[in-house]
UniProtKB/TrEMBL annotation:
Residues covered by the DUF4142 domain: 50-186
Signal peptide limits: 1-43
Gene3D superfamilies, per the entry: 1.20.1260.10
Protein name, as recorded: DUF4142 domain-containing protein
InterPro entries documented for this protein: DUF4142, Ferritin-like
Keyword Nuclease applies: no
Biological source species: Herbaspirillum lusitanum
UniProt keyword annotations, A-Z: Signal
Length: 194
């Protein structure tokens, strides 16, 4: 008969068994802590994502206003349309510069162009002329685009997570509301032109 010698494991004794449970418990708590930290970081990214999305949409809207208004300066013979277009170029360029500074401070890249949908509207405008152009510019870029911008900025002036983003939206909103009022007046004025 052969005797087999098996050394007893140090962890199988009652004293070591408690240490093993503590080590396993600590490891489980560490894993849970890392998971919680990742969940918190992910939640922070989601909030920052909403603010980033706002900044991108705001940049696209401003780019659309400026691009379409430059076309209006070239195509329109109506002094009221030209005056509105120049105001949009000046004021949206200024707001765009402020937005670029804000985005840069938040490490957010902004588009230099309008969105695809906005570019499609601008392409339609480029094919028009005369009173038809003036009416579509006042309606699509003046009124409709500013209605969308006002909604976007109203929402983010109260719901943005980042206080700087929230302040930017709140500070810019009155100007956009004034643009919408001007656009509605322009739309009424060009509606009667032939």
């Amino acid at each position: 008969m052969t005797l087999i010698f098996r050394p007893q494991s140090r962890l199988s004794t009652p004293a070591h068994s408690g240490k093993l449970r503590r080590v396993i418990g600590f490891a489980a708590l560490s894993v849970a802590g890392v998971a919680l930290a990742l969940n918190v970081a992910h939640a922070a990214d989601a909030v920052a994502g909403k603010d980033k999305s706002f900044m991108v949409k705001a940049a696209e809207a401003g780019n659309a206003e400026v691009n379409a208004s430059k076309i209006a300066l070239e195509k329109s013979a109506n002094p009221a349309v030209k005056k509105f277009a120049q105001t949009m170029i000046d004021e949206h360029t200024k707001v765009g510069d402020e937005l670029k500074q804000l985005a840069s401070s938040k490490d957010v890249s902004l588009p230099a162009e309008p969105s695809v949908g906005q570019r499609a509207k601008i392409a339609v405008l480029e094919k028009l002329s005369g009173a038809t152009f003036d009416k579509r510019y006042a309606s699509m870029i003046g009124v409709s685009a500013h209605e969308d911008a006002v909604k976007l900025f109203q929402k983010n002036s109260t719901s943005a997570a980042d206080p700087d983003v929230k302040n930017f939206a709140a500070k810019t909103l009155p100007g956009l509301q004034a643009h919408l009022k001007m656009a509605n007046e322009l739309k009424s004025e060009v509606a009667t032109a032939k």
